[in-house]
Amino acid sequence: MRDYAQGYRSKMVHHAAARQYGGRVVVQPLRSVFWKTLGIVVVVAMCVGILASFWIGHRLQSNLSSIALLQQASRHELDVKKKLVQERDGLVSTPRMLAVAAVQTGLYQPTLKQSFGFKE
Questions:
Q1: What is the pLDDT of residue 26?
Q2: How distant, in Å, are the alpha carbons of 2, 55, 77, 106 from that of 67?
Q3: Rounded to two decimals, what is the model's pTM?
Q4: Is residue 16 packed enough to be buried (19+ CB in 10 Å), middle (13-18) or exposed (0-12)?
């Protein structure tokens, strides 16, 4: 029996990818090889994309938590500052200064009649 495929085999090799399994050669069309390669590339790209989105999400969450901690510390510092300013204002207020002067030096604020020079 005559093999008529020999004349076509060389043309098929140009349009196909040949793989050898054991002792036989399996010829796959280039279209099949292209789609398999494209499928592998798409699957790898999806896996990399999913891993990248998880990593970015983790980084965002850690940055947001550090911002929240800094804001909490800032609020605490503002509360302490407000309290200290109120204490300072209370210490240097006029009624407090008059009371301290009266106790320490025995000096008291003049009465209304003393300030206008009236005699009793």
A1: 66
A2: 81, 18, 15, 55
A3: 0.48
A4: middle
